[in-house]
Records
---
Amino acid sequence: MIEHESLVELQQHYKVPVFPIGPFHKMAPKFNTSLITEDTSVIAWLDKQAPNSVIYISIGSLAKMEKKEFIETAWGLANSDQPFLWVVRPSSVSGTEWIECLPEGYEALTREQGCIVKWAPQKKVLAHPAVGGFWSHSGWNSTLESLCEGVPMICRPYFADQVVNTRYLTNVWKIALELEDLERRGIEKAIGTLMGDKEGKEMRKRALKMKQELELSVQRGGSSWKSLENLVEFIMSFAQQK
């Protein structure tokens, strides 16, 4: 149970049963929950990349960024010299339809380095051996999907639970770093830290350990499995009281 201490405190404070179940996409892996058409060609592109070399970037299905941040992100990725798979959701950049505000010549410059798509099969991408880091908005679905594959993260939260999730990832689990400098040099430095230096390697070790814990939790006898059984028993107890 990755949030054990916090859940125990909540249960003690509110005096209500708590049933930590999940991650659901590992308990029911055949279901596709994406509401946007996925570009599956990215898997073939990833197949050509070295293990743990690709930084995957996606800010989810709701967040939007300003043009300045988008352009700084583009140059930070290019200057990092790191292979990148960048999901740019249509209309996710304020005032644009897609990537028309990229600097002139950018696509030609990064053709061998990067791949830009409108949407990707994220769970398959994160499970791919070429992916070594995930630049995310830190939404809970994306966070869990990254944890389940042992992929360390760069967090750029925008709103809602994303800020709290980022604090967990960076300060509690210590498998991520928060992107606070949105200029190209700060972005380049963050990518270098996550993908190349000692700090990033330590994050990857901790992330892989959490992956193992999550895999055990959904197996028979694991914490999530037991919680599901306890929930079923709890619901059935109401019928027995009649």
---
Amino acid sequence: MPPDASVRREFLGALAEIVGRIAASLHGVAPVVLPIHMYIAGGAALHFYTGERVSNDVDAAFSHRIALPEDLEVAWRDADGASRLLYFDRNYNDTLALLHEDAYDDSHPLPLPGVDNAVLDVRLLSPLDLAVSKLSRFSGQDREDILALARHALIDAAGLRVRADEALGGYVGDLARVRNTIDIACRMIA
């Protein structure tokens, strides 16, 4: 069952606090490099598109290498009053996921309260690129996330196949396993 509006609001507040801390750490950065773009993937992005899952971590990549501040976790309460923790995943690495070369250009802006997008421009991978990014690992959670995007009519099998096949063009090595997961994902959606 999708989380209610209060969970979404509290999650958004926790994310805004983490992102605000990152933005504050950019004070004094040369204006020529601003804005820094932050691209959110994973469960946090999925939450904003579907509301079906509340992530505990924020997977994100940046347009520049930045020195992240220390305190990037926020405690918050869900609708039942249970304590939750949202943290920035410092181990996330977008080079290990299948990612289309235009994924960042096609990302969607996510305005956050208190965050100046002229300093830190926060963006979500598009639903299609989010689904493509889940094809490399293709865990049970990744499969469920892809199906959630399809249930909400944010992706379809034909579009996923085209975008994933285009993304494969930028990869080297034995791609047989990834091609197989593309086939499986498209059958699941269809």
---
Amino acid sequence: MARLRVHCNVYIQIQIAHFKAQLSKARTLKQALAVYADSDITNKHQVAMQVDMRKMESDINKQLQQYNTEEKTVQYVAGGCLPRVTCIPVYEKQVKMGGVIFPNCVEVHVCSGCCQEAQFTCEPTKTETISFSPIIRFENEGNFRIIALEPFKTINHTECSCKCKLGTDTCPSSAQILDKELCHCRDRICSPACYAMQKCQILHSQQPQCVCKRPIPGQNNSYFCPFGSHPDAYCRCETEAEANKVRVD
């Protein structure tokens, strides 16, 4: 039962993480409701019957009637994580050399916006190198003269996504791993999962294993079983074959 509970909790967390990731891409209420209708966290039967978007919007509007506001209410477009037009300077070093650069800045797309949770950041997933030309410099040496500069190259973001900004060294314990999808530290899942008297931990190997919270009877200062076996519910070492035999009997 404990084994099933551990896997179920992680599965539910992953479902919610997927939902939040898709919700970060929604720009309007209709899109957000569509994400909800398609997500695994909704009632399966309800989804199969096709959720009525109009009813969902109607329910939301009824709830909004309790709020009285004198300010102007407008239809929003959610920020989301998207490539947005921004201005970047052109050849700053050339400007310092004198003369007048045209254009002194150009428009490119840079990933920006918000994600559903603070531990995620909006990052580019696809980029391209683009060149701007002609870039010219006006020089005043008695009379203005025009000099053509080499094309100005820079990076343009074309696709963005919310990515976990935590590092792999974030987790304080070797018994935990950084789940990039959930973007937080979680206990390693032992296979088979540990019982109530055990915990999942790394001791002398890189693979997570079930470790007893007290020494295993008959073994001096030992909290874990040798390779090929694992502690049972009473912290006795058994192989998977022995465990299966007990279940069958």
